[in-house]
Amino acid sequence: MRIGARDDVLAKPWTELFEEAARLGFDGVELDLKVETYRDSEVWSERGRRDLVERSRRTGVAPLAGVAPLAGVEIASVCMASVAGLMTKPETHEQGIEALADLRRYCDELGAGVAPLAGVILFPMIKQAEQSEEEAFGLWRDGFQAAFEKSDGARAKVGMESVGRVGRSADQALAMIEAVGSPAFGVYYDVGNAAYQSFDGIAEMKQLGGHIVQIHVKEIGAEMGEGVLDFAAIFSTIRDIGYDGYLILETEAGDDPAANALRNLEFVRGLL
Fold it and tell me: Which of 29, 84, 137, 148 is least buried, going by the fewest C-beta atoms within 10 A?
């Protein structure tokens, strides 16, 4: 398994993010997109994607003679954040589909995830307040199917994340996976969110198994290892289900982001 961090955990702009991640010892980073500015981000620009790849490569280790260079800090995943909400609004449904399809292709250009890992797109599952479950389900299902069809051939996986105070269960996630019917579609599991939403994270991870495409690790309302979560049991379960992808820190940056990130990185390493 590899360990990464969200960009807001390291509290650095993307121009400095890869060097900071490398300095602290992370394997990868997760980039976060905002709905108001996603089209203006480097991810949505050909030149910007080249610059992101170059920053990633600059953090690689110089090769020995006759040995291939080691990869730098990877772009492990890209979070659609509020961009995902476009899909559940009928008036922006098509825009949400296009955004997801484009992002799958862009992740391939970014080299997000070096083989055997595929890049992952985090898709937060938040429906509009006034929507019924049935309406939201239909918009998601149709939107995911259309986005996969438009980006046929792209490698990036799409992982649903249960976010917010009212969570979505493993049963709901599996129903969506069956309805969408794509092998590139799964769950981005967040162990902190699961506890916050009163789900049994260990039981859910066992139920989801190979459908988990990436994992967020954090404790809500406490430092990792000092709250309610049994991380030893959580990490034992992660190993038991055969997960071997990225563990992405989504911890608080605090007053000293570097020190906090390093503390949490060392905590996770101690459990692997």
Answer: 137
Overall residue count recorded for the chain in this entry: 272
The answer to whether 125 and 86 are in contact (CB under 8 A) is no
- Report d(CA 209, CA 33) in Å as an integer: 28
Report which of 20, 3, 6, 1 is spatially closest to residue 252, judged by C-alpha positions.
6
| Spacing of C-alpha 132 from chain mean position | 26
Token code pair at residue 128: 């509009």
In whole angstroms, give the CA distance from residue 160 to residue 147: 14
Distance CA 156, CA 105 (A): 8
Phi, psi of 31 (to 5 degrees): -95, 140
Give the pLDDT means over successive 10-residue stretches in the chain (272 positions). Answer: 96 96 94 94 95 88 45 89 94 97 93 58 93 95 98 95 90 98 97 94 97 96 92 97 96 96 96 93
Quick one: residue 33, left, alpha or beta (phi over 0 = left, psi -120 to 50 = alpha)? beta
94 phi/psi in degrees, rounded to 5 = -65, -35
Residue 2 CA to residue 248 CA, distance in Å, equals 8
User: Does pTM top 0.90 for this prediction?
Assistant: yes
Q: Span 2-55+71-271: which CATH code? A: 3.20.20.150
Q: How many other C-beta atoms lie within 10 A of the C-beta of residue 261?
A: 25
Q: Of the candidates 194, 193, 251, which has an alpha carbon nearest to the alpha carbon of residue 222?
A: 251
How many angstroms separate the CA atoms of 180 and 88, rounded? Answer: 15
Helices in the chain by DSSP H: which ranges?
7-10, 14-24, 46-58, 93-110, 133-150, 170-180, 191-196, 201-208, 231-240, 257-271
* Residue extents of the structural domains in the chain: 2-55+71-271
Q: CB-side exposure of 192: number of CA atoms within 13 Å?
A: 20
Please answer whether residues 159 and 183 qualify as being in contact, where contact means their C-beta atoms are separated by less than 8 angstroms: no
